[in-house]
Write a structure and sequence with these properties.
mainly alpha; about 0% strand
Length: about 120
């Protein structure tokens, strides 16, 4: 019964709905380094985030989030700008920050368990 409900949930949220009304298919995926390099190239050529999202088939929100992730903030707090006077984007930095955030996911260990393990050793 739960499997059937789960299948209905997936079908409802991740299939084409209302094709006549202009709504399209929702694609859920993570960006690869190749995608990030395309974003870097298009952003350097002064493409808008809307064009980048359409080219890669992802959400505009994903593009904006990725552009923020790949920014370089100097020590004085200023953001480094590119030749178009927009915040510069670096694909390798975006990938590094994404991987670091993946490692930091999840529940943190309780403080008491670390102390108990040290006392037993």
């Amino acid at each position: 019964m739960q499997k059937r409900l789960f299948d209905l949930f997936l079908h409802y949220f991740f299939t084409q709905t209302g094709a006549g009304m202009g709504k399209g298919v929702i694609i859920v995926r993570t960006l690869t380094l190749e995608d990030r390099r395309k974003i870097e190239l298009m952003w350097g050529e002064n493409a808008s985030p809307v064009k980048i999202a359409a080219e890669l088939g992802i959400s505009q929100c994903t593009v904006y989030t990725e552009l923020r992730r790949g920014q370089y903030v100097r020590v004085d707090g200023d953001v480094e700008l590119d030749k178009n006077f927009r915040p510069a984007y670096n694909a390798e930095r975006g990938e590094t920050v994404y991987q670091r955030n993946l490692r930091n996911r999840g529940r943190r260990p309780k403080r008491g368990t670390e102390q108990k393990e040290e006392k037993q050793a």
